[in-house]
Structure formats: C-alpha cells, structure tokens
Amino acid sequence: MSNTSTTPQLLRVLGLSTGILLVASSMIGSGIFKKIAPMAETMQDGGDILLAWLLAGIISMFGAFAFAGLATMTEEAGGQYEYLRLIYGKFFGFLYGWTYFSVIGSASAASIAYVFAESVNNLMPLGNPLEAWADLNIGGFIYPFANSGVKILTILTVIGLTWINIRGVKKGGALNDITSSLKILGILLIIALGLSHGGSTDAFAHSGPPPVDLTGLGWYSALFAAMLSAFWAYDGWINITFMSSEFKNPRRNVPIAIVSGTLLVMLLYLAVNYAYLNILGIPELQGINAAGNQIAGAEVARHALGNAGYFFISVLIMICTFGATNATIMTAARIYFRMSQEGVFFPSAKEVHPTYRTPAKALKIAMIWSCILVLSGTFDQLTDMLIFAAFIFYAAGALGLIIAKRRGQITAKTFGYPWMPVIFILFCIVLVGNTLYVYPKESMTGLLLILVGLPAWWYFTRKGVKELRS
To answer: What domains can be seen in the chain, in order of their start residue?
Structure first.
C-alpha cells in the first residue's frame, strides 16, 4: 500500500502487548473448556491426555517459529495469504485466502460465537422461537432452524462485533486487551483450584473397556484423534500476521508476539488440563462426554465450588468465546482486504472506511458468510473441517519458509531453522492423513470447499485456466 495514496489507508497503531494478547485471545476460546471430555473417552488415561496437549503445543510452537520467520518477509496486510502469494504465486495465495474465507476464518468465527451463545443459554435459557421449523433439513444432516434461540444470539454476536471493529482498529484492540486479560486471570484461578484440590484417585487411571484398540497402531491413531481436539484449542496463533500493516514495527513485533503468545497459551493449557484431571478424573470426564450437553470446564468448577463455581466458569467461557470471536473477526477481514487489493476478491473489500480507517466492506462480507455458516451445522462439524483445511496450508507455509530462505526472500535469522519447519511439515502431513481416515465426511467437505476456489478464481480473474500457470 502506498503511503502517498490519496485514498484512506489502514492505521499502524497497535503495539507489542496488544499483539501478544491478540495471539492469546485468538487461541483461547471454547476448546480448552470442552475438548478434554472427548479426549478422556478416546485415550482412557490422564497421562496420555496431557501428552496429547503437550505434543500439540510443541508442534504449534514449531509452527509459530516458522511463521515468525515468514513475518519478517513483508509489512503488508494478509499474513499467510501474502506469504503464499509471494512464494508460490498468485493462484496458490488465492486458494488459501478463499479457503480461509469459505472454511477456516468464517467457520471459526461462527463456531466460537455459537459456543458463546450456548454459554449464555446455560445461564439464561434462550428458548427455541423457530421450533416449528426445527425438523426442516438439507441432506439429512443440516438443520438450519434447530436450536434457533442459540443460533439467533450467535448471529447477533457476529453482527455486533463486526460493527465494533468497523468503528476502529483501536476499539477492537482495546476490547481484545480487556477480554484477554480476563481470560488469563480466570484460567489461572482454575489452575489454582486444581493445584489446591486433594485429587481424584482415578485422575490418571484407565476406566472401562477402551472404545478402540489402544495397543500398537490403535494407540497412535487415538493419540492423533486426541491431538486433533487439542489443535482446535491451539488454533489461532497465526491470526496476528493478517494485521501486520496495522502494527508498529511489524517485522519485529509480530514475530515476537506469535512466539510469546503461543508459549503462554501452551503453559496455561497444560496446567488447566492437569487441574481438570486432578479435580474430576477420567470416569467423571467420560460421563460428561456421554451426557453430550455438558461442558467439562463448567462441571469441574461445579465439583470444586458448587453452583457458584458453575456460574463462574459459565461466565468465563462467555468472556473467552466472546473475545476469541472478536479476535477472529478483526483479523480475518484483513486477508480479504489484501486479496481485493490484488484483484482476486470482491472489489469493494479493498475499500477503507474514510472515517474509521478500517476495511469495513471486507468485515461486512465476512460477517454475512459467517452468519450463513451458523445455520449450516454444529460446532464440531465446523471445527473438524477447519483443522483439516488449516493444516494443509500450515504445511505449505512452513515449506515456503525453506523456499524463501533459499531464494533470499528472507534473510533474517530464524530460530530452529531448518529442523523445526521440517518436523512441522512432516507432522502436518501425518495429521491430515489421519484426519482423512478418522473423519472422512468432514475432511472431504473441507476439501470440497477448497476446490470451490477453482470456479471462484475464474470468477474473480475472468481469465480462466491460463492464470493457473502464473
């Protein structure tokens, strides 16, 4: 973006502390409160569950270091879209940006906002005003009007947060700082409860017959399934890169924020999952999973503090998911803004609001699609599609770091190069393959949405197959 342009430009006003909290806020949403219950059912052992969280955290750190290196490449908005465009060409960058729009970013905003609405519903039942239409479906698995009270609040949340972010990046950043600080404080209180608790005798014990063969390859498959749940909770460390053009000294501050924020979250996640296991133990966590409509974090607090604890955790989940939705909405629109500048997205998305200096049209377009996705499926369906699609492009980004280094596009020193990005790439390949095997329907749906980028590319460029070679 040219600074001499007479058109409104985005403002470079965000600092390092906001960057670190933005990374944390993008990562800490609903997963840390929900995912240990299905992990307890799959792994059957507390030590294995903590191992899954640790390995997922280490792999996420490897990815964070790789993308910290990529962040020294450019100061433009768009983050991973921009890196892939510069390294692999315009088409591959577009394919990532389209996937982020159609699956990763929009589904993330929709699903996190949905859990926010579920948390509100736990405290103040929202009812089901469209119950008469609840059985209407598409294909037998999409029920747009089921649980309509929660879905209506979800859509209103997405619309409200979009409005806040249109009115200025500093407003969105300030909201992020407040919610992030409250999240971290609340999780620290849960950790303190867990450490002071006497402990469950079954905290790290096997319980009952395993649902799958947990010997040999069966154990590794179960571990990867558990790590898939953990990766949903870790996902979001890359989001800050989308806003490089609005950070002061982005070549320094963005890489530091990615690594620092990811490390902070990994330590919090390990400690809070130990607290869950110490307070409840495997059998009770399995019961929570079997119940289907309970949130593990809330039941842990209820066990430790009674109904007051349940209320506390419910409010904390509301804060976490509200903040994570805000962070996702704020960051994702910058990809579409940059794509539009490059001529591969809706032309209006590159417009900057003349008063608030934000990508207002890009924010509105993302809002509309997220609201559609709210109606399209459940939380777990959306997140399974999200992780599968995200890791395909994470691997491409880490490989891109190696390519860019060899070309001389990146000259800054990168910690752990080249072994960290190589390990990260190999793990991404294994995780994507395992996800295809364990969740074939969700994975193929995610893959289909990626391939929808082909006609979308033709639509935006109007040049057809010839552009595929550029």
So the answer is: 16-469 (1.20.1740.10)
